[in-house]
Design goal:
heterodimer, A: mainly alpha, B: 337 residues, 6-stranded mixed sheet, 14 strands, 26% strand
Chain lengths: 301, 337
């Protein structure tokens, strides 16, 4: 009788219901939903348009050139052309594209994903605080399913925000590279999904036993900001000091951002995508596994 | 009907740090009865329920629910029982109906069955007209009823209720008892509940176990426990209290024990209403005048005093102790960070 029970019991039962619950809660709270939509737009405007790095290299920002004898009209034209060329040369060398906004937009897609995944930690703690977790643990729903539902629902939330970011970036004038095709969008979603899974797993894992929201916010700040700045999301790795380069080169954020850039704004050279996917995929798989295994032992009321 | 649905043998829980919450508890619960665990807060009632519902692992001892071991066959146990926890567990952002359907899915109840059952249960607890309102708009009594529906959605054979009427006003409490009685009649299930309300144990439970500092001190039907105390108490004083008239009183039929304290006689009798007039007659016949007489029917509180040496009502007062004990248990469960 017991073994029959166990067999007829799908080990993943409850997953759909729990994931749906999280999404219903999200859609039902208009303030949170609207903010998650508006937040990427603000980030785009503030960072992408506010920090105008390509503007640094325009001719009129250089000290005026006094030549003796004064250059001819033709020489002046040559100098101007030289500087304009220099600007796009420097931008292309450092950022891969001629405008910083396009470079940064791809970083923000992953940045928003990262911010969105922090919710998984909060929601585990809230469920514990409001007794919902207690009820869950009294049912035959497995601890793995509880954890997976948190990871999937948070990742789906992150994905929706990432879609909005990409849409907004296009509206603000993102310039696509020759690699770009409708498939690139799907590829971007795939990498966002994998990265989101890995990150939400981390946040779920640290909240397996916590009942304090303060612990969560402290940990979230501790993790997210370094992950973003020690990566290629805002600035190219090649310009960082070597110790920071070392960090950025193992940071999964860098690989996720790199993949998004290759899909959307780069031209040519798709081979590195395999490395990006392998790295972020392994990151997602490892951390999801770790958080599931930890939940068997540590997820408690 | 007489088979034992719950069998508990030497169940013990010691938390890290040495707090003995439940100390070798043994008892059986019969099919179809309402079994109550009576004791003040912080004596291990909730810990016992948590062990029986497989949320906490016992340190020692065994327990079987419908023949399934709570440790080795915990998924079979989980599927066969319903749990109404002490705290509210519904998701406040969802409607009552959404909450119930969520519970149904968590227990793996097929949709067509759960829909039918939900309608039935909502009618029984009179929540039908509120089912599409968000739970945060519910009153305390409504939330309890919703939790009750959720805990019954998997058609459990045994329902565990941890302080089902805690924090409810007297009227709602009485209504909740009626719902539970109706459920018992309708589905014939077995109930295991904890309470620190004497009235609740008395009027709702078929049998109670009195628990004191993690130990079970006695088990029995409230009626029998009260009867075992030796019947009713008549307190009598006479105008001329110089002479001892104990021997006169003792001769009256159905009088079992007479004690004289400061001129007042504490008389244990059977059938107080019938015996008291006989005592008055006997005392008068011997020429004494009755100054004062009172009759007390024993309550569960007297039973409680008999077994633990203190009044349950008095223990209610020491809230601070309870909170300290709770904090200790929570710390021992090791989830504070």
């Amino acid at each position: 009788m017991t073994s029959n029970d166990r067999n007829s019991n799908n080990p993943l039962h409850g997953l759909g219901a729990l994931t749906t619950r999280e999404l219903i809660k999200w859609f039902k709270n208009p303030v949170v939903f609207i903010l998650t939509v508006v937040q990427p737009i603000i980030w785009m405007g503030l960072l992408g348009k506010g920090i105008n790095i390509s503007g640094l290299f325009t001719v009129n920002h250089f000290p005026s050139l006094t030549l003796n004898p004064p250059p001819t009209q033709q020489q002046l034209l040559q100098i101007n052309t030289y500087f304009t060329g220099l600007q796009s040369q420097i931008m292309t060398n450092l950022f891969g594209v001629t405008d910083y906004f396009s470079f940064l937009s791809c970083g923000i897609v992953i940045f928003i994903t990262l911010l969105a995944t922090t919710y998984s930690a909060t929601s585990v703690v809230l469920d514990r605080r409001f007794g919902f977790l207690n009820k869950l643990l009294a049912t035959s729903v497995s601890k793995s399913v509880i954890v997976i539902s948190k990871i999937i629902s948070t990742t789906l939330r992150a994905l929706v925000q990432a879609i909005i970011v990409i849409g907004v970036a296009f509206l603000f004038g993102l310039k696509t590279g020759t690699n770009f095709s409708p498939l690139s969008i799907l590829g971007t979603f795939a990498i966002v999904f994998l990265f989101g899974m890995g990150m939400s797993s981390i946040f779920v894992a640290v909240s397996l036993r916590t009942s304090r929201l303060e612990t969560q916010s402290a940990f979230i700040n501790f993790v997210t900001i370094p992950l973003m700045f020690a990566s290629n999301a805002f600035f190219p790795i090649s310009l960082m000091p070597s110790w920071l380069q070392a960090v950025a080169n193992v940071n999964p954020t860098s690989y996720a951002v790199d993949a998004v850039r290759r899909f959307i704004i780069d031209s040519g050279n798709l081979s590195n995508l395999a490395v990006d996917f392998a790295y972020v995929g392994a990151f997602a798989l490892t951390l999801t596994t770790i958080s599931i295994v930890l939940s068997w032992r540590f997820l408690s009321k | 009907m007489t088979e034992d649905v719950i069998i508990v043998e030497g169940l013990t829980k010691i938390f890290n740090g040495g707090l003995v919450a439940v100390d070798h508890a043994s008892f059986n619960v019969k099919s179809g009865e309402i079994f109550g665990f009576l004791g003040p807060n912080g004596t291990g009632k909730t810990t016992t329920i948590k062990m029986l519902t497989t949320i906490l692992k016992p340190t020692e001892g065994r327990a079987f629910i419908l023949g399934n071991d709570i440790i080795k066959q915990n998924s079979s146990v989980k599927n066969a029982i319903g749990v109404l926890p002490q705290e509210y567990t519904a998701d406040e952002d969802l409607t009552g109906y959404q909450n119930i359907m969520l519970c149904a899915a968590l227990y793996g109840v097929p949709k067509d069955i759960s829909k039918k059952r939900t309608t039935e249960l909502l009618n029984l607890v009179e929540l039908t007209s509120f089912k599409d309102k968000e739970v945060q708009t519910y009153s305390g009594g409504m939330r309890r009823r919703l939790e009750l529906v959720c805990s019954l959605i998997n058609n459990p054979k045994v329902l565990f209720l941890d302080e089902p009427t805690l924090g409810l006003d007297v009227q709602t409490r009485a209504a909740t008892w009626n719902y539970l009685k109706a459920l018992k009649k309708e589905f014939g299930m077995t109930f295991f509940l904890t309470t620190h309300y004497l009235e609740e144990a008395d009027s709702l439970c078929d049998r109670v176990a009195i628990i004191d500092h993690g130990k079970i001190v006695t088990v029995g039907a409230p009626k029998d426990l009260k009867k075992d105390l030796g019947g009713d108490i008549v307190m009598l004083s006479v105008q001329d209290d110089a002479t001892d008239i104990s021997s006169i009183i003792k001769r009256v039929p159905r009088v079992k024990e007479v004690k004289r304290q400061d001129g007042t006689y504490r008389i244990k009798v059977e059938d107080g209403e019938e015996t008291a007039p006989d005592i008055i007659d006997a005392v008068r016949t011997e020429g004494h005048k009755v100054a004062r007489l009172s009759l007390t029917k024993p309550t569960l509180d007297e039973v409680y005093i008999e077994f633990t040496g203190k009044s349950l009502r008095e223990e209610e007062g020491s809230k601070a102790t309870v909170f300290r004990q709770r904090a200790t248990i929570q710390n021992a469960e090791g989830r504070r960070m």
